[in-house]
């Protein structure tokens, strides 16, 4: 997240000084919510237990907030609108290599990030390490391929 890059302390200060401006703008509800300030308070209560300030220790909750907004909300809406059976999966394998840790200098990286599962389905050229037989990552790759091909 851009909150954990660059001037982190300044960004958190801005978020805490003006949450009724920052959260609606970054989550795109400033023009769609009837009462954006009330939505902001509900978000703070739900994700941060109503804490007065959002701190660096709360990066996992902040990550969950933006994950819900950017990924989960859209996926659940697609499931709701689709007339046939839908199968979702949640990839939570904490592997030895992650695209986030490789491409973003982020000491608050909470674990698996967007697109990490693709490393186990398709060979990746570049910085991704080659999977070695009998390694846990290799075993995960075999499981992922088997799951996907059985599903197809």
Automatic annotation (TrEMBL):
Q: Which Pfam families match?
A: COesterase
Q: Which organism is it from?
A: Cuerna arida
The UniProt keyword set, sorted, is:
Glycoprotein, Hydrolase, Serine esterase
Q: Which family does it belong to?
A: Belongs to the type-B carboxylesterase/lipase family.
Protein name according to UniProt: Carboxylesterase type B domain-containing protein
The UniProt entry, under Gene3D superfamilies, shows: alpha/beta hydrolase
Which InterPro entries is this protein grouped with?
AB_hydrolase_fold, CarbesteraseB
In alphabetical order, the GO MF annotations are: carboxylic ester hydrolase activity
What residues does the Carboxylesterase type B domain cover?
A: 11-152
């Amino acid at each position: 997240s851009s909150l954990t890059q660059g001037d982190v302390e300044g960004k958190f200060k801005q978020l805490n000084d003006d949450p009724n401006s920052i959260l609606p703008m970054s989550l795109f509800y400033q023009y769609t919510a009837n009462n954006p300030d009330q939505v902001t308070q509900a978000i703070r209560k739900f994700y941060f237990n109503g804490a007065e300030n959002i701190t660096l220790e709360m990066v996992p909750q902040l990550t969950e907030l933006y994950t819900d907004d950017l990924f989960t909300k859209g996926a659940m809406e697609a499931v709701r609108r689709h007339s046939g059976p839908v199968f979702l999966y949640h990839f939570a394998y904490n592997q030895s290599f992650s695209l986030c840790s490789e491409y973003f200098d982020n000491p608050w990286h909470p674990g698996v990030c967007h697109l990490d599962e693709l490393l186990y389905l398709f060979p990746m050229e570049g910085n991704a390490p080659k999977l070695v037989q009998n390694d846990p990552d290799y075993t995960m790759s075999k499981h992922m391929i088997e799951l996907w091909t059985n599903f197809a």
